[in-house]
Amino acid sequence: MSTRRHSSGECIAMSGIIPAGIFERLEQEYAGMPVYRLGRFFLWNQVGELWVVSDGVGKSPYYAYNKAGDQQNPAKCRSFSYWRVYEDGRFHVRTQLVLTKFFTLQPPDKHPIPEVVVINGREGPNSIVNGGYSRVDQWMNGRPCYMEEDTKLWLFFDGQRWKVSRELGGGSFYARTDDRKAKSPIEVNEPWMVAESGGEVWPDIKVVARAFDPEEVLDSSVTNLEDGKFTDPDFPPADGSLGDMGFADCDWIRGQKLNPTAQKRVRLFHNIEEDNLLQGSLGDCWLLAAFSAVAEFPRAIENLFVTKEFSPDGVYQIRLYDVSCSRWQQMEIDDWIPCKKRKWWQVGGVPIFAKPSDNQLWCMLLEKTFAKFCGGYENLKGGHMPYALQCMTGEETQLKWKKEDPAGTLWSEWKVDLDWMRKNPRRFDKMFTRETGNTHTKHAFFNMIADFDEKNFIMGTSISGDVMEKKRTDGLIERHAYSLIRVFDAPELSIRLVKLRNPWGQPAGGGANWKGDWGPDSQMWKVYPQVKELLNFRAGVADGMFWMPFDDFTSIFDNVVVCPKSMPPAMGRRASSRALSSDVVELSASQAGKISDNFNSEKLKRECSIQ
């Protein structure tokens, strides 16, 4: 991809201030006026009012501006008004700033060395490698060198490989690639190897180096509201749709433009699974946990969408159940998604709230539908999972089981107050329950949730606490919603497990969700290889799902919510997975014997038995 994509050869030479140099005109215009670029700096027109120099088109702060914004040619502005330059905390008139317009007939190189290289796609540890690396005067081993101005990281060729490092020519690195033939980073054909938090280096196929293309940045920007696509007038891409959340300074980007450089095309649905989504900065774990639980049954998610396929026009019809009138309500939304404020080099965007794990749009659009339903994204904070399950399934009755003693030996049944819900169908932050008088011992409680799992009921769970989303030393989170997605019983070995999912996915900085027995890093998977095979357990998968012993679950977790509706049977891979792990799985005597060959079976039974 070339960084010179102007067709006319029109340029503006700027002198008298920094940045001084040649601004080249781009093919794409902004508000009907020409746009010019010099490296990371843009010269553009603010809707006929100002000519501006800044880090991005339509972006502030300004480095310089001229009030003669009605001039088509920025070089003529000085005849009508002086340029003002930002220095020492304010703008000063600078009479020495001069712009000159000229043309060049020299065609762009077919394979130029890019002036700016963008590295993007890294998530998790060492995502610091993402950035816009500007070319410097220095060369090393016959290759150009680049520096990221904000992070002060260097991108260079050490004679054997391209590296991202803290020091130019340094031996240590954050990322590297072993492609020796690449004359520049954008020609690399080998995967980038990224250092993980534990010091190990692994390939990350999502990391891509490409030439900076300002036209791509412009194309995905919210500034282009007049793009001919649908914008919801009742829930527009504006601060009012967010509420008072402290995210006013964000970028709204269409879902179809979130990742325009991805190899996979954007889709509404693609292999809906419970690990397809991650929670963002909004405190709506209750909602994302419900999404994850319902996503175990893909057909239930698809049935919420009246629009069944990706919409190029950005308009979607989605339905939610409204308990106040006991009817499904169809709602129309656009695909503008609130994203983190982008840096000058970024293409697409990173959603502030729900994040898909691939190029599926359904979870972000469904979250936006809930936000519109309750009057804004702010009103999704601190809600309760039964509301979301009711809205997505149409099942009005929602149950909650509460632990009655610290050891979890007795559980009582409660029903969500339906009368209050009917009067307040859009108040997700408060929930009232009524005790039914039914109680279960721990043993009976396990059999009950195993039966619920067999019936394809949807379940969620949480730990009580005084502080919202407080992380415990065992890796679990208090006052945070988890989806309860599997129940497993191996009577021959006295092993009872439950499988949960944290909507955060892999916690920041790495580490397991649950650090005890049968957690992601537990040795129990080595002790019981047949159980590992039965449950299709894979270590090192950062999807937020984990197993834990039922004993530990009942002593730690305090609440279990249940949507008592049999969901449509899961399909494909999920069906076989449920067949292995639902209700009761009997291990044969030969299997049990193989497991216990190297261990004392009586000792293991004592350790894993239900108390």
From TrEMBL:
The active site is at C285, H480, N502. GO terms for biological process: proteolysis. Pfam families: Peptidase_C2 (PF00648). GO terms for molecular function: calcium-dependent cysteine-type endopeptidase activity. CDD domains: CysPc. SUPFAM superfamilies: Cysteine proteinases. Residues 229-566 form the Calpain catalytic domain. InterPro entries: Calpain_cysteine_protease (IPR022684), Papain-like_cys_pep_sf (IPR038765), Pept_cys_AS (IPR000169), Peptidase_C2_calpain_cat (IPR001300). The keyword Protease applies. Keywords: Hydrolase, Protease, Thiol protease. It comes from the Eukaryota. Belongs to the peptidase C2 family. This is Calpain catalytic domain-containing protein. It comes from Chromera velia CCMP2878.
